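User: Hi! I have a protein structure encoded as tokens and I'd like to know what sequence might fold into it. I'm fairly new to this, so please keep things simple.
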């Protein structure tokens, strides 16, 4: 990689173009900050103000770390991280002794080099084949934040924990501790998590159930708080922080469950961070109930060792709603290059991806952004490029629920 010599002018250029969020993102974050001042409860308002101040400190940390790195290495401007995907082996892929070997240590050191100063990791970066080079950013298109999308940060932390436990190397334990701090810092005062942190504006600041963000964060915190899944090296303070964040996150799950006509039902993919109202996640993600996310949350709830009565009630509501929204007698398959809904009396149950709150009807959205009740009424490109029907997670959790319900009767 070629670098040019550092100059003061280049530093200014870097600060303006690379280390500052876009005007639109800054405006959206500023809008959130202004809305926080409208919160009536003084304690909640203070908690959110503290969160936003911490967010600004994380922004400065990323910027100042890169500026210092450029200056110290005599580099004029930063370049993007190498794009790609990274595979981090697990105990399901490798025997325990592999994690103390040369290959595991190499991958772990590379992962640490791409760890953001805030403690998280970005999406879409190839971070296992080689270490990050001086002057390379920690991210590609996600310019401003680490993320929980597609299991990022969770995967790196779990891999590093395995290597730390197997090799007993302090640098891997320290990287895991920084990762845990990232998860704790990113958590909203109400217990939810955004997709990216520091806040990046727009839908990425919503509380994210998509890509199992909430569930992954909670699973990670549960393991960390108990010292399980190779996290036994965490100190008592870290475990206590993880336990408190875990409890707050479970409360958020219960609070965000959508009720219809007084009955708890399912969850949406995203929620507005202040009001906890369902929020659209993008052109093809309406603010509607989502069966896949509901199944994932239900799977998490039935994994709790000692669920509260509120969590048990939420689980029963979700299971009942998934049972009521199942679609029997049809298959969703690709036929001659196009997805079709085929009649089949022997087919296993399927579910639409989204259901309208209130009517409980399946809904679909095409490129024109208009909600429709018939998947065949949206344009072919939209119909064939999105999973409008699902079944794996839903079938699995509903098959597990009866045994769980025997141990946890429905509360009244």
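Assistant: Happy to help. Inverse folding works backwards from shape to sequence: for each of the 412 positions I chose a residue that suits the local structure. Here it is:
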């Amino acid at each position: 990689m070629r670098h040019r010599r550092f100059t003061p002018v280049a530093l200014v250029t870097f600060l303006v173009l690379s280390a500052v969020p876009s005007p639109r993102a800054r405006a959206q974050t500023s809008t959130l900050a202004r809305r926080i001042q409208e919160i009536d409860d003084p304690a909640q308002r203070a908690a959110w103000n503290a969160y936003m101040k911490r967010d600004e400190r994380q922004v400065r940390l990323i910027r100042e770390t890169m500026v210092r790195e450029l200056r110290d290495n005599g580099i004029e401007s930063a370049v993007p991280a190498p794009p790609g995907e990274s595979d981090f082996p697990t105990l399901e892929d490798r025997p325990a002794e592999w994690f103390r070997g040369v290959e595991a240590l190499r991958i772990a050191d590379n992962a640490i080099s791409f760890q953001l100063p805030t403690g998280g990791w970005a999406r879409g970066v190839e971070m296992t084949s080689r270490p990050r080079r001086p002057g390379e950013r920690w991210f590609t298109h996600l310019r401003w934040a680490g993320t929980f999308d597609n299991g990022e940060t969770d995967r790196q932390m779990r891999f590093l924990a395995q290597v730390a436990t197997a090799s007993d190397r302090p640098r891997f334990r320290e990287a895991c501790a920084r990762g845990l701090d990232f998860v704790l810092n990113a958590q909203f005062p109400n217990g939810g998590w955004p997709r990216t942190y520091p806040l990046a504006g727009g839908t990425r600041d919503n509380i994210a159930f998509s890509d199992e963000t909430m569930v992954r964060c909670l699973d990670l915190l549960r393991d960390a708080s108990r010292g399980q899944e190779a996290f036994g090296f965490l100190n008592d303070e870290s475990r206590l922080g993880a336990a408190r964040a875990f409890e707050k996150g479970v409360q958020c799950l219960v609070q965000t469950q959508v009720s219809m006509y007084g009955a708890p039902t399912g969850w949406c993919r995203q929620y507005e961070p202040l009001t906890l109202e369902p929020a659209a996640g993008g052109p093809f993600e309406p603010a509607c109930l989502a069966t896949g996310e509901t199944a994932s949350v239900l799977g998490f709830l039935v994994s709790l060792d000692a669920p509260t009565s509120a969590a048990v009630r939420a689980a029963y509501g979700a299971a009942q709603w998934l049972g009521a929204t199942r679609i029997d007698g049809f298959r969703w398959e690709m036929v001659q290059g196009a997805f079709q809904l085929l009649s089949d009396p022997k087919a296993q149950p399927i579910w639409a991806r989204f259901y309208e709150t209130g009517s409980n009807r399946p809904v679909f959205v095409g490129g024109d952004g208009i909600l429709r009740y018939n998947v065949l009424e949206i344009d072919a490109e939209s119909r064939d490029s999105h999973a409008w029907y699902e079944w794996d997670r839903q079938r699995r959790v509903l098959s597990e629920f009866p045994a769980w319900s025997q141990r946890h009767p429905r509360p009244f």
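A useful reference point when you look it over: The radius of gyration is 23 Å. Feel free to ask if any position seems puzzling.
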